[in-house]
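Just wondering, can you check both lines?
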Amino acid sequence: MKLIYSFIILILFQNCSFDDKTGIWKNSNKISKKENNLFEEFKKISPLKENFNKIIPLDKNYKFLKNSSFDNKEWKDIYFSEDNNLKNFDYYDLNQLVFKSKKITRGKINEYILFEKNNLIINDNKGNIFVFSINKNAVIAKFNFYKKRYKKIDKALNLIIENSIIYTSDNLGYIYAYNYKQDKLLWAKNYKIPFRSNIKISKNKIILSNQNNSLLFIDKYNGQILKKIPTEESIVKNNFKNNLVNYKNNTLFLNTYGSLYLLNNQSMTIKWFINLNPSLDINASNLFNGSQFLIYKNKIIVPTNKNLYILDLTSGSIIFKKDFTSVFKPIILNNILFSLHSNLLIATDLNNGKIIYSYDINQLISDFLNTKKNEVEFKTLMLANNQIFIFLENSYVIKLNLNGTLDKIDKLPTKINSLPIFISKSIIFLNNKNKISVIN
C-alpha cells in the first residue's frame, strides 16, 4: 500500500511542480516591469499577421560544423564588434556566482554595458558614467557631464570606447569625449538635435546619426562635424533607433524610414542605398521597425518587423527575403543564421536561404520539463561553447545544441537586469539591484 501511495504522490509532483515552482514561465497574471519594447511594437504597430509559424524538423542526416570557442577579453562596442556580429564565446559553464559588487547606482541603468582593460563601464538615466575596476572591486571613475538645469531630464546615452576614451552622444544633442584614465573631459559639442543611433569609430572619425536621420561624420579629436548627410526623415517616431555597422572602410546606415545606405568612410560619400519598407506611407500603422542588423562575410542580414532580408554587400541587391524576422539580433555560425521569430527558433542556411529547422521554444521547454506548455519571455540570444544561449527576462538561460535540441536549463544565481556580456569565460551583467554579477 505504501508503494501505491508513493507512486501517486510522484505522479502528482511531476504533473504540477514545474509549472508552479520553477518560475521559468512568464506569469500571465502579472505585468512585466521590463517588457521588450521592440517585441511589443512588432505585435502592436505592424498590421501584418504572423505569416510564418511552421515547425520544420531537422533532417537526420544534417551535420552542423562547430568552431573553437573564443575567449573574449573586451566589449568596447554596445553591439560587440564593428560589424555587429557576435562570436562563439568561451564559457566555463559552471553557473556559479564568483563576484558581486556593491550597488553602483540608484538610477535606471542603460541595458548595454561595456568592458575594457578589466574595467566595466556603466551609465544611467541621470547621465552618470561609472568605471568599475573588477580587480580593485571599486568605482575608479565617475563622470557626469550635465549641469543642474538638466537634472530632471532623463538622459539616454550612447557609448563607445577606444583607448580609455569614452565617446558619448545623448538625447539632448550633445556629444563629448571623456578620458577615464585621466578623469578628463577632452571636448564637448552641442548640436541641438538629439542623437538616435549607436556610435561607430573609423580611424579619425566618429560616425553616428541624429533623430532627423542625418548621418554625421565627426572628428574624434575635437568633435567638429566633417560632413553631414541628410536622409529621409520619419515624422512619426517609434522605439527603433538608427543602426550603424562598420565594415573595412565602409559604414552601413539603416534609418527609421527603412532605408539602408552604404557609405565610404574616407570620401564620406554614398555608394548605394535601398529602401526596405514595403510601404512608403509612413503613419502609426506601418512604421518601419527592426532589430540590430549585421554583416557576415559579404552578406548583410537585416531583420525588419515584417521580413528578414539577406543582401549583397557590394551592390545592395536582395539575395533572398524570408517571411519571418528576428526580434533580437540573429547569431551566425559557419554560414548558419539562428533567429528568434515570435516563439520559434529558426536555423537558416545563408548560402541558399533554406530553412534547416524551425522549433517552438515553448514546446521544447515543455517537453524538457515534462509539463504543460506555457510562454517564456526572451531577453537576448547569444552563442557560447557551440551552444545557443537564450536568456530569459526571469533570469533563466535556455541552452540548446546547434541542432535545436534542448540540453539544459539553468537559473542564474542572481537576477539579471542589464544585457549580459561574455568576458574571460564568464558572464557579466548588472542584477536587479544594480550590482555587478560575474558568473563563471
